[in-house]
Amino acid sequence: MNLRFYHYLFLPAILIFWSCSSGNPKLEEQIPMDEAALESGENLFDTHCSSCHGFEQDGIGPHLGGITREQSLDWLRRFIKNPTEVIESGDERAKAVFEQYNTYMPAFGYLEEQEIDAIIAYMHQFPAPEEVEGARADSILNPIPEAIPLSDLVVELEWISTIPASSENKPRTRIAKMDYHPVTGDLYIMDLRGKMYRMEGEETEVYLDMQQEMPEFINEPGLATGFGSFAFHPDFGNNGLFYTSHTEKPGTAPADFAYGDSIKSTLQWVVTEWKTGQPLQVPLEAETRELFRIDMVTGIHGMQELTFNPLAAKGDPDYGLLYIGVGDGGSVGAGHAWVPHGANQAWGAIFRIDPSGNNSSNGNYGIPTDNPFVGQEEALDEIYAHGFRNAHRITWTSDGKMLATNIGQGQIESLYIVQPGDDYGWPVREGPFVIEPEMDLNQVFPLPENDAEMGYIYPVAMYDHDEGNAISGGYEYQGSEIPELQGKYFFGDIVHGRLFYVETADLERGSQAPIYEWQVSYEGVSKPLSELSGSNRVDLRLARDRSGEMYLFTKADGKVYRMTGTLSEGL
Question: Are 138 and 544 in contact (CB under 8 A)?
Fold first, then answer.
């Protein structure tokens, strides 16, 4: 199996099982390990590594305990600076790692050698942990043996804009969500590093700069830290209400959802209401009001989704209620599996709140009376559904199904039909498989005979890590310009940029909808998104406009494309 592994990780860490020659000098004799070096290394590690790595348990990436005792300093330096170069040079160690994880890491050549050495010095303080329990006899090595078939669907793309670079280092942007203005239909797109833009043709205009508006705003550490999501209220044209999520340093203010001082908080996610008297104005001028904030153990799996039900009309019970995807904050990989486990915990859940109300514990928002856990002891009233590792995208099909994609651990990427009160099982289930959070998180096992008694809900579509690394949530095509796409839910894989779809008619609870792969063509030439974006890590996202037409965009190069038609024959 190919385990998921992100490009921001320090790939040498996974080589902890390979010995280097006994003749190498001790690391302490090669690089500084004084107090200043270790402090610098810890800060750099927190920024670049901690979201994905610990020193005892595998997380998104493997643990780093003992790595500096297993690899030479020269090899670690070279790989951190330019892993692709080392892999393509034919280095046997690098090739073996690439074959296992099936993805390249970016070059960290922008780090000074003394910074790389400081990170290595800090890691050297952590010996190899005691080995976790090995594979059980019933461990499933290949959960989904069948490969996803390639369909004959080829969709033509039209470039519409390139978002301004937000960093001199890769990726050039961290664009993560695009949506439309409910009055004008204009497209808006946000970059995790803090800016949100209105798009007009090829041009972009800053609508909101989170760094200017929120003095405590941070966009690191973590793959998804920063400006997480946004949502216009469906009646934005009249009430001027707009909602965002963003990250701040731990302890900036008391958290409404916390887990106690015994566990480190890496950052806080904050949900904010913005109210403007000029809903058509660019840039945004608005007053702000904090709804709530939540502590997170690490910088991953935060709050990447805010949305309203677009099918709800005024007068419907669901109208104006804000859905919020709250990840597990990396707590399970950090050894705190209880944090997202159960309806009494805020993490690993989808919230459903009424921003116009005030009956929450902090008085800043309302609790809908029809939320499934209202009035139940040992449960949070805000929760609509729970048991997610990271509910990445939430959407509704034209026939009313609420869908959520869930980014998995080491084996399964999932799509769920969401109903109130559902428990999807994390951290004791990954898709329709058992996971043991106190063991190796990358192993899965068969369901027990009495599984039906436990009440877990399983995916309506899924793929394993033979096919990709992290699901990129998508949308049902609801436009009219490309009839061949109607009735299909389009999604993909974040890392590799592979593109998938399912027929929405096949999405039924209790069964698995077939997944098909599709391709894109640009200027008449069919090519993978990795080639189109010029990066081995694509960072794929999808979007939909007011007319139901669809788009895709890539962080690597900041380019946004519109889906304009299909080709009758594959190229």
Answer: no
- DSSP letter at 447 equals P
Confidence of residue 132 (pLDDT cuts 50, 70, 90): low
Percentage of the chain modeled with pLDDT above 90: 73
Q: What is the arithmetic mean of pLDDT over 212-220?
A: 97
Q: Please give the residue range of the domain that contains residue 92.
A: 11-123
Name the helix (H) or strand (E) containing 290: strand 287-296
CA–CA gap between residue 187 and residue 189 (Å, rounded): 7
Residue 493 DSSP symbol:
E
pLDDT digits (tens, 9 = 90+) for 471-483: 999 999 999 999 9
Nearest to 384 by CA among 457, 311, 441: 457
- The pLDDT of residue 225 is 95
57 within a domain of the structure (yes/no)? yes
Q: Which pLDDT score, from 0 to 100, does residue 425 have? A: 98
Residue located via tokens 């805020």: 346
pLDDT of residue 52: 67
Q: What is the mean pLDDT of residues 103-124?
A: 84
Q: What is the pLDDT of residue 401?
A: 98
Looking at residue 259, its amino acid is Y
> What radius of gyration, in Å, describes the C-alpha atoms of the chain?
23
Backbone angles phi, psi at 87, to 5 degrees: -60, -50
Q: What is the pTM of this model?
A: 0.91
Count structural domains, the chain. 1
Question: Has residue 112 been placed in a domain?
Answer: yes
Give the span between the Cα atoms of 307 and 297, in whole angstroms. Answer: 24
pLDDT in tens, 32-53: 999 998 989 888 887 777 766 7
d(CA 144, CA 148): 10
What does the H/E/C string look like for 324-347? EEECCCCCCCCCCCCCCCCCCCCC
Highest mean pLDDT of the ranges 28-42, 69-83, 125-139, 219-233: 219-233
3-state secondary structure of 270: strand
Q: Is 50 exceeded by the pLDDT of residue 6?
A: no
Return d(Cα 265, Cα 466) in angstroms, integer. Answer: 33
Pairing verdict, β 402-406 and 471-476: unpaired
- How many whole angstroms separate alpha carbon 28 and alpha carbon 517? 50
- Please report, in angstroms and rounded to a whole number, the separation of the first and last CA atoms in the chain: 30
Cα separation, 488 vs 443, in Å, equals 32
Helix (H, G, I), strand (E, B) or coil at 293: strand
Q: Can you tell me the distance from the alpha carbon of 538 to that of 548, in angstroms, rounded to the nearest whole number?
A: 24
For residues 269-282, average pLDDT: 99
CATH of the domain at 74: 1.10.760.10
* Omega of the bond leading into 368 within 30 degrees of 0 (cis): no
* Strand spans (E) along 334-448: 349-353, 383-386, 391-396, 402-406, 412-417, 429-430, 433-434
Taking the CA atoms of 546, 548, 554 and 560 in sequence, report the sign of the dihedral they define: negative
Closest to 392 measured CA to CA, from 257, 268, 541 = 541
Contacts of 369 (CB under 8 A, 6+ apart): none
Report yes or no on 98 lying in a domain: yes
Nearest of 327, 323, 353 to residue 339 by alpha carbon: 327
Q: Is residue 332 within 8 Å of residue 427, measured between CB atoms?
A: yes
Asked if residue 541 lies in contact with residue 176, where contact means CB atoms within 8 angstroms, the answer is yes
**Is 115 a member of any domain?**
yes
